[in-house]
Specification:
It is a single chain. With 416 residues, the protein is an alpha/beta fold. It has helices spanning 5-13, 41-54, 89-106, 124-140, 149-155, 182-195, 239-244, 308-321, 370-383, 397-400, and strands at residues 31-37, 59-62, 78-79, 117-121, 145-148, 170-174, 178-179, 199-201, 206-212, 215-221, 224-233, 252-264, 272-274, 281-284, 289-300, 330-341, 347-350, 356-360. The strands form three sheets. Strands 1, 2, 8, 9, 10, 11, 17 and 18 form an eight-stranded mixed sheet that branches. α3 crosses α9.
Length: 416
């Protein structure tokens, strides 16, 4: 069924009894050409682009729980392409372009809202760096606007401009950035993949990866063994555990990243705002709740829950940037398990096991990368070659020294 205004009107007048299931719930087959481990945003996008861009259909996505139940449903929904290092900039630029046409392509409302993203700066040195970063972003072909203090005040008058400890010097604005609805993105890709013949198998946990003579031949699951010519991992914070099944030791750590939402309020924040003197970011959802987050919890964990010190740290940063937030009541908080590389940049690459591929290490940037991640990962799995947008997101960069240290946001084992 194709969604349209006509269908909404028709179904509303007929008791909404004609809607069809968004995707099938098939039993796993004995063998597939490709198995994607992980039914989150990246895994579903990969399956969709394998089918759409490369004409493959004998594909299964296996998910231990329900589709979209991991990190894609546990984030702050920010979309942007304001990276400055070669290797990241072209990748996220491609992702933003895909975001801009995603709803029309998928025929699904992902609630993409290009309300703008502004990064605040608080010193002359930081302002100079933002000027350089803006030029690099423009050179990549994306939009960037450097604002002085008056420009920030006009754009976001609700901020604390009387803070003498963290004075607002200016900001870097990307008007094409914004937010999207996280679960709708997963559902849209799932529906698109299913329509192209992909089997989406829920409640199917992978318990082992079968390897013969150095080549992957399938997976063991709680619903039986499944053969496969190729297997792709896209399991975010569980990457180390799944990789271990194939004898891999991956260059990542798993940490908890918390987020919070307040009660619904009238519109006060036009887009996304990030604090320049602490890791804090905030936007307002379509329901009116303020959605915000900050740093990882700084210790390794596979528990999707956070701790009180980081909660306090996030609230303090929010109060320093925007004191009015103190009047809002926090409704809930949640945690996602993020896979942190040492340089803060992702990996889309082959593994030493023939036919086994890895997608992970997304740090804080997993949601905004969803479309390009699926596009580039599908290209690698289908062709064996790296997409032009992901030529530097390689696993061996930690051996060769070609790291992509965007802004020091990777894991820092020596600090703990």
């Amino acid at each position: 069924m194709r969604y349209s205004a006509f269908q909404i009107l028709k179904q509303g007048l007929t008791g909404n009894k004609g809607w069809q299931p968004v995707w099938r719930n098939p039993e796993p087959k004995a063998a597939y050409d490709v198995i994607i481990i992980g039914g989150g945003g990246h895994g579903l996008a990969t399956a969709y682009y394998l089918a759409k861009n490369h004409g493959l259909s004998n594909i299964a996505v296996v998910e231990r729980g329900y589709l979209g139940g991991g990190n894609v449903g546990r984030n702050t929904t920010i979309v942007r392409a304001n990276y400055h290092l070669n290797g990241n900039s072209e990748f996220y630029s491609h992702s933003l372009k895909l975001w801009e046409g995603l709803e029309q392509e998928l025929n699904y409302n992902a609630m993409m809202s290009q309300r703008g993203v502004i990064n605040l700066c608080h010193s002359d040195g930081q302002y100079d760096f933002f000027a350089r970063r803006a030029n690099l972003i423009r050179a990549q072909g994306d939009d960037a606007e450097l604002l002085d203090r008056a420009g920030v005040q006009k754009h976001a008058p609700f901020l604390n401009f009387q803070n003498e400890r963290f004075p607002i010097r200016g900001g870097l604005l990307q008007k094409r950035g914004g937010t999207a609805r996280h679960d709708a993105v997963a559902w849209g890709f799932a529906r698109g993949a299913d329509m192209r013949g992909v089997d989406l198998i829920q409640n199917c946990e992978v318990t082992g990866i079968d390897i013969e003579a150095g080549r992957v031949v399938g997976v063991q699951t709680t619903r039986g063994a499944i053969k496969a010519k190729k297997v792709g991992m896209a399991v975010a914070g569980r990457s180390s555990q799944v990789g271990q099944m194939a004898g891999l030791r991956l260059p990542i750590e798993s940490h908890v990243l918390q987020a919070f939402v307040t009660e619904g309020l009238k519109p006060i924040i036009p887009g996304v705002v990030t604090f320049g003197m602490g890791h804090f970011y905030i936007s307002q959802s379509d329901k009116g709740g303020l959605v915000f987050g900050g740093d990882i919890d700084m210790y390794n964990s596979y528990a999707a829950r956070g701790n009180m010190p980081i909660m306090e740290h996030v609230m303090e940063a929010g109060m320093a940037m925007m004191p009015a937030i103190g009047k809002a009541r926090v409704l809930r908080g949640w945690g996602g398990i993020v896979d942190m590389t040492m340089d803060g940049s992702p990996i889309i690459d082959k593994t030493p096991v023939d036919g086994l591929f890895f997608n992970g290490g997304w740090n804080y940037g997993g949601f905004k990368a969803t479309p390009a991640s699926g596009w580039c990962y599908a290209h690698l799995i289908a062709t064996g070659n790296h997409s032009e947008y992901a030529t530097k997101l390689l696993m061996n960069r930690f051996e060769t020294g070609h790291v992509l240290d965007e802004e020091g946001t990777g894991a820092h084992p020596n600090k703990h």
